[in-house]
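Contributing new records

If you add data, match the layout below exactly. Sequence lines come first and carry their own label; structure lines follow with theirs. Keep one chain per record. Anything else will be rejected by the validation script.
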Amino acid sequence: MNSALVAARRYSSLSEHTRSPKDLEYDVILDVTRELKSHSGAGTTKFSELARALNKNERLWIEIGTQVADPDNALSPDLRARLFYLAQFVGHQTSKVFGGSARVESLVETNVAVLRGLKGKA
């Protein structure tokens, strides 16, 4: 399921139709980030729950990477390249987390940086 479908399901009430796409993107990334963060504690998470959170985050970033790779994407080429790089990083880092050589926090930090960017906070 792509991020647009997740956002559409989450915000199906009439009052939410006035939200901007940027706000919807923020909320989708925030939800995934919260789920990742809840599984970042040392040894307290069941592997299946961690795997689900990692998979959800990776699918989100695959969607972001796909969208910014589209030549018709309206973002600046520089921002598109940076987001594409982050999508690649997330895929690589997720593999490392599964392999035990990296921690979930690096993925949480990546998402938080993007959330700050969406809110206009450097």
